Amino acid sequence: MNRVRRAGAVISAVGLAVVSWVGVGPLLGHRFIVTGGPPGRETLEIGLAPVVVVASTLAGWGSFALLERLLPRFSRRIWTITAGTLLVPSFAPLLAPGMKVATRIALSVPHPAVAGVLIPGLTWIPARPAWAPSGGRA
After folding, report:
1. Which of 54, 67, 123, 125 could bridge across to 75 with cysteines, CB 3.0–4.6 Å?
2. Domain segments of the chain as ranges
3. Do the strands 41-43 and 33-35 form a parallel or antiparallel pair, or are they unpaired?
């Protein structure tokens, strides 16, 4: 059941990233255009974004599974802190010159959206039912 829930978190994170990429631009009424770099303007399309999200979410799942085996007592805390720390530099490309403010905002939406689904989705612990034994002495 744990794998199914975690696979659902990965699929949900990827789906949310794609929906936010495809939906936010048209919702704001503009295309993602970045100037600078190669001569002229460059229009950003969805391209490999879903592949990058799939790879990064699967890497997150794999690293969390490894931590659970190596450090079961601290795995959730270590992984959550690491994931949150890695979220911050993911915004670095948005600081590059040549983007309109609306483009920066629209491109920043998928980052916290994916993290907001993936972090709790992978680390969630189901509540113990009231009738379940507590593990203490009877």
Report:
1. 67
2. 2-122
3. antiparallel
